[in-house]
Amino acid sequence: MTDLVGHPILAAVSDIRSVLKGVAGVNPTFMSTSDKAAALRELVAAEAQLVELRLRVLADAGDLADATGAKDTAGWLAHQTRTRFSDARADMGLATVLDRERPVLAAGMREGAVTLAQAHVIRRALDTLPAAVDADTVDRAEAHLVGCAGEFGPKELGRIGRRVLDVIAPEVAEAAEAARLADLETAAADRTRMTMRRQGDGITRISALVPDAVATRLATYLEAFTNPRAQRGENAQTSDPFTRLPYPRRMGEAFARLLETVDPSRLPVHGGDATTVVVTIPLDSLRAELATADLIGAGLVPGDNLTGDRITASQARRLACTAKILPAVLDGTSLPVDLGRAKRLFTPAQRKALLIRDRACRAEGCDIPGTWCDAHHLDPWHTGGPTDLANAVLMCPHHHHRVHDTGYRTDRLANGDLRFHRRT
C-alpha cells in the first residue's frame, strides 16, 4: 500500500486503509449476531461517508482532465480506477450536484445517513420537480427526502419523491403535478416505439417503448394469465407446471395467450375486412400428425426469412379450436372455394379467400402484403364483370390507382400477376 502523506484527506485515506489492513485476516465467523448486525450497519454508514468524500474530491478534480489530456474527469476516473465509464459518469453528475446545489444531501452522506443509491434517487426526484417550483420549496423537499432516508430504501424514497410536494407544499402540488405529468406524457408519446425482428431460430424479438399508463394496462392484462389458478389446498400452486416457470417466461406465455383471446371483430377494419389472421392448411395435412400450415398476417416482420410464418399442423388444430384465428382448409389444387356474390363490393369472406390465394399485391414485382391491398375487378363491375374470385386480384393502393390510370395498360402474366406498360 502506498504511504500517503501531505493533505489531510490523503492522511485520512492512509489511516483508513491502515485500519482496514489490520482486520484483513480477521474471520467474522465467531462474531455474535448483535455484533454482526452492528458491524454491517456501521460499515454501510462508513461506506456512505467514504463515497461522499470521493465525490467531494471528484467534483473539484477538473484540472486532472486538463493535466492528462483526458476528455473529462469521468473518463480519467474510469480509466485510472478500472471502473465502468457509465458509473463514473453518474458519479460525476452527482458529485457536481452535491458540490453546487444540494448541501443538505451532501451533509447526509457525510454523516453516513444517506447511501449512494439513496442519493441518486433523491437527486432524480429533485431534478424532476417542475421548473415553476421556487428554490425555497426545492430546498424543503431536499431536507424532507434526506430525513426520510433514515427510514426508507431507494425504492420507497422514489415513491415519496414523486409525491413530495403533497407533503411540503400542498397548495401548489396539484398544479405542479399536472404540469409535470403533461410534460411526461408528451415526451412519452414522442418516444413511443415498437420493433419486431426475426432471429432465425423460430423466435421473433419484440422491443417497445410505451407510456407508463400503457405498460401498466398491459401488465395488468398479462397478470390475469400469470396469476396462479384457484387455490385448492396448500400444494395447489406448486402442482401447476405453469406457475413454476420463471416470471419472464410466464409473462411471455401470457402475452401469447392475450393475443389468442383478442376478438378481431372489435379491431379496426384492416385491408377491407375485420382484422383477421388466417391459417391455411391442406386437408390431408390437417389430418396428419406431422405437417405444416401457413400463417397469413401482416408479413412485414424484418429479419431472417428462413422461418417465416409457418406453424405445425397440431398448432393449427389448436388455434382453430381456441383462438380468434380463421382456419382455411384448401382443396387439392391449393385454392379456397369461390365465395363470389352477385354484388359490387367483395364480401369479407371473399376478401379472406383472396388473401389466401394472392398473399400480396399482384402487380409484377410488388411485395406489399395482402392485408394492405384492395380487391380489384379485372373485368370492371360497371361493364358487367362479376364480383367473384376468378375476376379479382389484390392490388396495393399505389397499383390500384395505377391500374385505373388511362396512361397505363396491363398484361396478365401466366402466374396471374399484372405487368404495367406506359401507353405511348
TrEMBL record:
Domain of life: Bacteria
Coiled-coil regions listed in the entry: none
Entries under InterPro entries matching the protein: DUF222, HNH_nuc
Gene3D superfamilies: 1.10.30.50
Domain annotation HNH nuclease: ranges: 349-401
Pfam families xrefs: DUF222
Name used for this protein in its record: HNH nuclease domain-containing protein
Organism: Nocardioides furvisabuli
